[in-house]
Amino acid sequence: MRVIAALLISLITGSALAAQATAVFAGGCFWCTESDFEKLDGVSEAISGYAGGDEADPTYEEVSSGATGHTESVKVIYDPDKISYAQLLDWFWRHLDPTDADGQFVDRGRQYRGAIFFETPEQEKQARTSKAALEKSGRFEKPIVTEITPLKAFYPAEEYHQNYYKRNPLRYKFYRYNSGRDQFLEKHWDDPDHLPGGKKENTEAPMSWRGPEHFNKPDEATLRTRLSPLSFQVTQEDDTEPAFKNTYWDNKQQGIYVDVVSGEPLFSSTDKYKSGTGWPSFTKPITPDAVTTREDSTLWMVRTEVRSSYADSHLGHVFKDGPQPTGERWCMNSAAMRFIAKEDMADAGYGQYLTLFE
């Protein structure tokens, strides 16, 4: 019986292990790269470490000196039945500066260079194909210089670097915001956290809003893992994103804007106008009861704060200097919302609002 049990355990364990695959990427500070990849559905873990050099078992101090040839990297452990290597590549390109060969954002030096370390000929082929596609797209004016190179070895970083974004959320948020990373990504990608052909684990609003009876707001710890640092700061800590450096301030597509936490509909492009403020502005909410308002006396002035009705997310403020017919300017934060294009509304469960565009 013990032999049979051992064989069963072996078969079960072997099957579980067979479902896992690995990929190694370098995108600058491994705290950020680890955090970005662990948002993905199908990724079980991203391990911070070092790759690209010849020195065995390097320390953080040795790598950060720039003398080892290693770069800060992450090993992504994923289920290929849930997410493909091609989708990981797409995600990777959206979360670094591929035109910078000498570091990433505030971190300078080859120890922070971007790289794709392939483990098989098929990974190399897909990596080079994806890089060529990015070059052909013309999204960046400068050449794409990210290295694509064979993986010699991957060395896990010290324990205190693993899951740094979870263990030290305040320090991590401060570092990430001041690094300029997210500002760069938002400038070059309409939605850097959108994965074509794949799905992420709760990093944006639910695909549809089924009503308040089906919505339970997640706790703070869960929201910190589901939302980007900026979206958490805005919706949960009443922060304000930079003007003109946010996703939707100049969005001219037809569609609706929904709460990033709950998916509840908030505003329509039919009521959006160019206010010149650098934030998405509307003349009214999508329905009168879509939002709530309350007095806000912070910043040494009295303003009217706007929050979503059910998720209670901080959205922005409403002012009395807007155009007619309402005379109101509903000045919102892009980070508090997700945009659903008109052509996607029916599939996403918002078909009832298509009458707004008739």
Concise overview:
It is an enzyme of class 1 (oxidoreductase). This protein has 358 residues and is of the alpha+beta class.
Structure description:
The protein is built from ten helices and 17 strands. The protein is of the alpha+beta class. It folds into two domains: 2-188, Peptide Methionine Sulfoxide Reductase, Chain A, CATH 3.30.1060.10; 212-357, Peptide methionine sulfoxide reductase (Metal Binding Protein, Guanine Nucleotide Exchange Factor, Chain A). A six-stranded mixed β-sheet has the order 7-6-1-3-2-8, covered by helices on one side. A hairpin with a 5-residue loop joins β9 and β10 (265-268).
Keywords summarizing the entry:
Metal Binding Protein, Guanine Nucleotide Exchange Factor, Chain A, alpha+beta, six-stranded antiparallel β-sheet, elongated, Peptide Methionine Sulfoxide Reductase, Chain A, disordered N terminus, six-stranded mixed β-sheet, 358 residues
